[in-house]
Amino acid sequence: MASDREPIAVIGTGYVGLVTAAGFAELGSEVWCVDVDADKIERLKRGEIPIYEPGLAESVARNAARLHFSTELEPALEHARLLFVAVGTPPTYSGDADLSAVHAVVESMPRSDHHALVMKSTVPVGTGASIKRIFAEHGKEGFAYVSCPEFLKEGSALQDFLEPDRVVVGDDGNWAGDAIVKLYEPLDAPVVRTDIASAEMVKLAANAFLATKISFINEIANVCEETGADVLEVARGMGLDQRIGRHFLKPGIGFGGSCFPKDVSALKQLAGNSGYHFQLLTAVIEVNELQKRRVIAKLQKHLGSLVGRHVALLGLAFKANTDDMREASSLVLAARLQADGATVCAYDPIAEEEARKRMSGVQFADSALGAVEGADAAILVTEWPEFAELDWAEVKQRMSGDLLVDGRNFADREAVEAAGFIYEGIGR
Ligand SMILES: NC(=O)c1ccc[n+]([C@@H]2O[C@H](COP(=O)([O-])OP(=O)(O)OC[C@H]3O[C@@H](n4cnc5c(N)ncnc54)[C@H](O)[C@@H]3O)[C@@H](O)[C@H]2O)c1
Questions:
Q1: Atom 39 (ligand 1): residue with closest C-alpha?
Q2: Long-range contacts of 338-341 (CB under 8 A, 24+ apart)
Q3: How far is the CA of 153 from the centre of ligand 1 (A)?
Q4: Atom of ligand 1 nearest to the CA of 19
Q5: pLDDT in tens, 127-171
Q6: Centroid of ligand 1 to alpha carbon of 215 (angstroms)
Q7: How much is the mean pLDDT over the chain?
Q8: Ligand 1 pocket check for 124: Cβ under 6 Å
């Protein structure tokens, strides 16, 4: 790949940072990665990838010579003028975005007239303006600022980086905006060049819209259950309408993950802080919380009280192909089940290590068949491909009960019922 590619720095080497680093290294840039987590940096230096993301380990290995990892900022500042910021912006108790990591990065920047902060982290609208103000107050007005929100999906993050639907670049017409557009040029994606506030809003609005679509189809599913319609047929019929589109019309047990819950809540809070009550998003969040809990009612419908019942959770990650457990619906399910007196045994092919950090009182099995041993009911929580291969007759044999709640409408209903199960899907 061309060696005339601009070197860059990436601050924060989590899901977004590491994928961004690997992606730009694939395109030929030298990438200087910085993280405050010394353990993570040591692992990355040894070639270990701290997260599970398909293709990422191979990409990092392939580009090892171009990827430099450090806990120190200086080498990054020395070698790169574009500093991508990909630190976490988790929710606070109030639902606002916690910007402390972003501000720590901003404060650590020196005076410079040839560097730019390029914000990949998802931040409230107005953050760019406030960072520029902070720079100005500290005599660092020469530091340029660009908003360049990230839209990758965990599970296909590297592919999303390399084949983006669009690249959004929000700036105030400085050199850095042009440099970012040039950096992304080889990807041949539509570029939305706009002002900083609009770029920040694109990210929040896109995630809020997708979350709204999920809550909408979940409510349709719930009405289907009451009326005898099959939501899968309904979603198919709706999705073929090009004005609607088929994506994100999959009913399930609520959205989770590190982005949708916090970004929806952050946009709602942002609106509220600005004096506007965003009613629709309040409903989206409430529907999502209730959706996670509806699974419990499905169990009770067949088992009555859950006291002393054994329940197996098949899958824990918030979706397949990731080990990310942030805001996973399984966390709520496991807690609710135990609060209602059930014991929980779980299996996830990848996310167990992360799950153990966030769940208490749950037993973990090494396989799906191990998890269902002696269970009164099993809940299919994550659509891991290996669950499509399950021999349901064998699953049934291992269980003491005969109830399968398919939280993703993922299993082959006919095969499950032929094996002697009572099948409870979502909206059908
Ligand atoms: N995960 C996603 O799917 C996704 C997609 C699009 C956008 N985003 C946004 O990108 C941002 C990062 O998300 P993530 O999932 O990669 O987070 P993450 O928690 O996986 O990674 C954040 C990293 O930043 C590091 N860090 C924290 N403070 C730092 C500092 N002062 N200096 C250097 N490093 C620091 C942490 O140690 C961690 O390694 C968030 O704002 C998120 O909303 C995430």
A1: 14
A2: 338/362, 340/296, 340/305, 340/306, 340/307, 341/305, 341/306, 341/307, 341/308, 341/309
A3: 14
A4: 16
A5: 999 999 999 999 999 999 999 999 999 999 999 999 999 999 999
A6: 26
A7: 97
A8: no
